[in-house]
Amino acid sequence: MLRALASIYIEGQGLSRRDVFKVFRVCAHSSPASEQTVLSTDGAKKSNAKETSYATTAADSGGGAPPPPPPPRPPPARSPRVWSAFAALTAITASLGGVYIYRKMNGDVDDEKDTKLSSDEREADAGETALPASGEALPAHVQYLLVGGGTASFAAMRAIRSARPDAQVLIVGAESALPYMRPPLSKELWREPDLAARAARPDSLTFRQWNGRRRSVTYEPSAFYTPPDRLRDGGAGAGVARGWRATRLDPVRHSAELAAPGGATHTLTYDKCLVATGARARRVPALRAAAAAGRALALRGVRDVARLAAALDDPALRTVAVVGGGFLACELAVALADRLREDGKRVVQVFREGAPLAGVLPRYLADDVAARLTEAGVTLLPEVEVTGAALQEGGVHVQLSSGARLDAQLVVECVGVEPEVELARASGLELEPRLGGVLVNAELQARSDVFAAGDVACFYDEALGRRRVEHHDHAVVSGRLAGENMAALAPPKPYKHQSMFWSDLGPRLGYEAIGIVDSELPTFGVFSADAVGDEATEPHALAVGASMGPSEGVAEGPSEGVAGGPSVGVAGGPSVGVAGGPSESVARRAGPPRRYERGVVFYVREQRVVGVLLWNLFNRMHVARQVISKGEFEDLFEVAKLFSPQEED
């Protein structure tokens, strides 16, 4: 066990510590790939080995380890003179490499690649053009066709090439950029200077991470990929058709029709195909006129970053309105406020919920986020929706459901995404009517030799039921498993991975979560006592809604605590403990919001833990995975101690 009960501060919702959970009955789950912290039947901690929060082991995805490499051939005999020269060359190389690695680890090496772009890359950077421009340069047949140029396709390609190095793989992506990562687009990228010009050349775009290290947005440079015409001539490798879109598949004939923006078309056949078309940004109907005039933008791809960065550089810009209260909207609002602060420009966030992230966080944490956003310079307008917009010279009048009007020079729409299913619909693939996306089985297969992964796949989760997930980690692991199943070196494996996601609201708050994270579910939170306290904020920090719901609130008095949810429950104070009942309802706590620095929140459905949120706690995702796997516990307070919330990272 860790510290005494008095060193832990508890926040809970809808749960009592006594007689609520059944005695867990599922055996401990651990990955055979590495040592893990294992939950035993007495709740004790067996080991404390770390796992990366971005899970990529074959065991997590339901797949096996890749086949071992063939034994290396013995080197030919060398003369003493050759050995001496080789040793000298090795020493020089090691010295130079050591200096480079040292500088890179300390953030001194700038991995900008924009000084050595080929003519083809410069052409692709100029706009959404096709590369190659003609279908004549594309192969007539490939073994593996991956539709979509994002993370899931890239992960599938790596898995296929690892299993079958001599395979022919073609990635078909609608964007002219090489496959790249999306998480930095709403966070770290906005700390980069000259972003408008640099984001227009995504193949060479780099950014500095929170730890100070610089990395490229693209997963691999262009030299990593095989030119498509080499695939056409029968060579092995992985090529990318950039700016091309698949318009229809024929699963029976194993053929695909491709189209490019300039009107070029091409038809090819495949052995196996992956549909990883991802998702597109939803748009606000009331802002259509503003969008057509370039005054309302969305943020989904790197081209959107370039357009938004260019609009922010307009000297006439004074106010930016960010519409939405979810992950993307909050991340972007903080990033833009930090970028625009020195220029005296303001960021206003408009959302229909009572607090930012209220759809996923318990209300007390959503209030904490509201305070942090305000401190970061974001003006919050909660509980309103955009009902109309009128263009004006140099900006747009945004009409709100409250009757108020917001004048802004630029609006950024961050109201969620919807899966891109046009290809699937045109190809006769079955779609999931409630969750959206392509319906696939546990092996991620939609039809014979047609698979789907990433945002567009609606898969069956053995633990949590049918789901569709829009997380980076899910794209990585589902894409990799689809690639392994397509390579078919072993029998198909089911997708059992519980994907995680993370979010950063500036450098002081980061959180990770796994499973189903929904504020409509009862929650049970445990926070370190030395990391919870009241903190004064600006007067407008809590302009986020006067009510926590029909029967929710925060108690005042000797057993003060935070509450939320239909069956509320948490108490703090001199004797830390948990309180609550099915009909508890109290008035909202007055005064400044409470600040939560480190803790863990469990989301519960039918007495089973279905989601875990780690608040400013890192390198503990392996424990969260085992909690989700086991599911039912007698005492979640004891389980929370396994996450060591009192230990500051």
UniProtKB/TrEMBL annotation:
Residues 50-59 have a biased composition (Polar residues). GO terms for biological process: apoptotic process; mitochondrial respiratory chain complex assembly. InterPro entries: AIF_C (IPR029324), FAD-oxidoreductase/Apoptosis (IPR050446), FAD/NAD-bd_sf (IPR036188), FAD/NAD-binding_dom (IPR023753), FAD/NAD-linked_Rdtase_dimer_sf (IPR016156). One of its GO terms (molecular function) is NAD(P)H oxidase H2O2-forming activity. Residues 562-580 have a biased composition (Gly residues). Residues 113-125 have a biased composition (Basic and acidic residues). Its cofactor is FAD. It catalyses: A + NADH + H(+) = AH2 + NAD(+). Its main location: mitochondrion. Residues 65-78 have a biased composition (Pro residues). It comes from the Eukaryota. Residues 32-80, 110-129, 546-590 are annotated as: Disordered. GO terms for cellular component: mitochondrion. The keyword Cell membrane does not apply. Residues 143-478 form the FAD/NAD(P)-binding domain. It is found in: Mitochondrion. Residues 482-629 form the Mitochondrial apoptosis-inducing factor C-terminal domain. The keyword NAD applies. Residues 549-561 have a biased composition (Low complexity). Keywords: Apoptosis, FAD, Flavoprotein, Mitochondrion, NAD, Oxidoreductase, Transit peptide. Belongs to the FAD-dependent oxidoreductase family. This is Apoptosis-inducing factor 1, mitochondrial. It comes from Euphydryas editha (Edith's checkerspot).
